[in-house]
Amino acid sequence: MISYVKGRVTTLDEGSVTIEINGMGYEVLCANPFHFQDNMNQEVKIHTYHYIREDNQTLYGFKKKEDKQLFAQLLNVSGIGPKGALAILGTVSVPEFVSAIEQEDDKYLTKFPGVGKKTARQMILDLKGKLVVWLPDEENENTLFYQEDLSSKEKKALLEDALEALKALGYTEKEVKLVRTELEKAKHGSVDDYVRQGLQLLMKS
Fold first, then answer.
1. Is residue 140 part of a domain?
2. Domains in the chain, number
3. More confident residue, 144 or 102
4. In sequence order, what are the residues at sequence separation of 6 or more whose Cβ sits closer than 8 angstroms to the Cβ of residue 27?
5. Candidate ranges 24-28, 111-115, 125-129, 150-154; pick with highest mean pLDDT
6. Same domain, 14 and 70
7. Which structural domain, as residue segments, surrounds residue 71?
8. Quick one: average pLDDT of 42-50?
9. Contact 103, 123 (CB under 8 A)
């Protein structure tokens, strides 16, 4: 099994990132490949899940180890394949997803692409109690998703990068403008968090 890859980011597209290692390019499928946009031509380490079938071998990549671990857990749920698991991770943070599972919020879970009520209940049945290690401590909850010490200029730069990432994922200029106002009110500390909230808002619209 390939646990991670470490190499230079050479190309990005809507569904994958290519990492060059010793003259070979490895295509790694990601939920949001443009999270690596700032790492172009730089060396990065990507946690990978090596998905093996008789007629297919695919690398799925994640910035955080807990994202990879949740991806693996989702694959154990009946009705959830790699594409569905990746779509979930692309629209929600791990703690938010775990919170929905623990609260048995099937209405929230059915907002994900391809997840109906039956699959949502199956996720709750299979995963409840197994993911609580990723729930934040109450005293750290407010610092998990944003940082108060960012300047307005830094926050604006993060937001602009996130809006460009949404457009790169296939959303139109008009659709992105519809969620911009809500995102401007947020206090996130990373492009990833802005992209996740943007995707959640777009799913509701």
1. no
2. 3
3. 102
4. 16, 17, 18, 59
5. 24-28
6. no
7. 65-135
8. 94
9. no
